[in-house]
Design a protein that fits this description.
Blueprint lengths: L4 E5 L25 E4 L10 E5 L16 E5 L8 E6 L9 H8 L5 E4 L15 H10 E7 L10 H4 L7 E5 L10 H12 L2 H5 L23 H8 L14 E2 L1
Parallel strand pairs: 1-2, 1-3, 3-4, 5-6, 5-7, 7-8
Antiparallel strand pairs: 8-9
Length: 249
């Protein structure tokens, strides 16, 4: 047997699989070298191998590497994201102007449109299945979570469904979004993020420390939906002039 090696999991502080896959279980009798595993960063200089998780490593802040030390990248999923942006949509009516926004966006980048308003299909008409969202997570950097009405505090499943997956939603609506970018600037920003892994993954970092809770009854709490829809919603329409923008979640 060779000398025992020390393996440091640098990103174990977020690691959600520790309960199911404790480090002790990684000691495989078939390994040619005996290994010890640790999440303790203070053991950096003693470690023979440092393991970083693909989604949660900050490439701009890697620790110093001593001579002879090896590094490894950990990921439970295949390499994702070969396409830039997708949109699932079945309502092609002008509504709040999102169709106009997407047409303008398509002048700058390619947008894959699934459903009745595009040339691609996935799932049953009018509803994206879990398989469609899995495909989205596997293949795309971004998803257009665009509402069909631009009303105050109006955010729907178009956003909340995709938050369960490792894809960055780009929102467009009348909820509490910051009005940032016209389509041209948005397209440029998406292309930049797709080519900069650290900057892109920063938009998914929240998934390591937060849980999405779905409460179907919460929307109705102390809200007069009629007053909201007719008065308080303050609905508006995108006019193509860049007044409203889109924002990365």
């Amino acid at each position: 047997m060779g000398e025992q090696k020390l393996v440091l999991f640098w990103t174990m502080d977020w690691f959600p699989y520790e309960a199911a896959y404790p480090l002790a279980a990684l000691r495989q009798p078939r390994c040619s070298l005996p290994c010890r595993f640790t999440p303790q960063r203070e053991r950096l200089n003693d470690s023979d191998v440092v393991v970083f998780h693909a989604f949660f490593v900050d490439l701009a802040a890697l620790p110093a590497r001593r001579a002879g030390q090896r590094r490894a990248l950990w990921n439970l999923e295949p390499p994702p994201h070969t396409k830039l942006v997708a949109w699932f949509v079945s309502n092609c009516a002008p509504g709040g102007g999102r169709m106009s926004y997407v047409r303008e966006l398509q002048r700058h980048v390619h947008v894959d449109v699934y459903g009745a308003c595009g040339e691609l299909t996935c799932g049953t008409p009018g509803a994206a299945s879990p398989d469609c969202y899995n495909m989205l997570e596997r293949d795309y950097f971004f998803y257009l979570a665009f509402e069909n009405s631009l009303c105050a505090d109006y955010a729907t499943e178009k956003l909340f469904n995709v938050l369960r997956y490792d894809v960055v939603p780009v929102v467009f609506g009348g909820a509490a979004y910051q009005r940032l970018a016209p389509p041209g600037a948005l397209a440029l920003r998406m292309v930049q993020l797709a080519s900069e892994p650290t900057a892109y993954l920063a938009h998914l970092r929240w998934r390591g420390s937060r849980v999405l809770v779905h409460d179907p009854a919460a929307w109705a709490c102390e809200l007069d939906i009629v007053d909201w829809h007719g008065i308080l919603g303050r609905c508006q329409r995108y006019d193509g002039g860049g007044r409203l923008g889109a924002l990365f979640w």
